[in-house]
Amino acid sequence: MRLAVLTAVALTVLPGLAWADSIDGAWCSNNGRRFVIAGPQITTPAGTAATGDYGRHSFSYTVPAGDPGAGSVVRMILMGEYHVQVQEGTATPVVWDRCGPSISLLQRPRRLG
């Protein structure tokens, strides 16, 4: 019984911890911009899919053509579970926060019938 309880707790908690120690996930700026990292793939703040240099605690990519700042290099460093430092080109680095769950994930469809 005790082993079953510990296993259930581990299966519930461990998936969340995997995100806590990596740069993967959705990140939000204080002015409403957002990007999403999944391994070497990124969806840029402009919504463009691109590939970058992935490290568990860092990420960099060249801004794709058509996005604002095209051609500049963006470097990111994870600063803990909820913050990432983002520097585009030679601009002053800024801190982005891990995004909360989207509204669509919070609302489950009601079953009819």
Please name the defining characteristics of this protein:
single chain, 113 residues, alpha+beta, nine-stranded antiparallel beta sheet, 2 helices, 20% helix, disordered N terminus
Explain the overall architecture.
This protein has helices at 2-20, 103-106, and strands at 25-28, 34-38, 41-43, 49-51, 53-55, 58-62, 73-78, 83-88, 94-98. It is built from 2 helices and 9 strands; from the N terminus they run H-E-E-E-E-E-E-E-E-E-H. It has a 9-stranded antiparallel β-sheet with strand order 4-3-2-1-9-8-7-6-5, with no helix packed on it. It has 113 residues and is an alpha+beta fold. It is globular and about 30 Å long.
Note the topology.
Layout: H1 2-20, E1 25-28, E2 34-38, E3 41-43, E4 49-51, E5 53-55, E6 58-62, E7 73-78, E8 83-88, E9 94-98, H2 103-106
Antiparallel strand pairs: 1-2, 1-9, 2-3, 3-4, 5-6, 6-7, 7-8, 8-9
Provide a concise account of the structure shown.
With 113 residues, the protein is of the alpha+beta class. 20% of the residues lie in helices and 35% in strands. Strands 4-3-2-1-9-8-7-6-5 form a nine-stranded antiparallel sheet, with no helix packed on it.
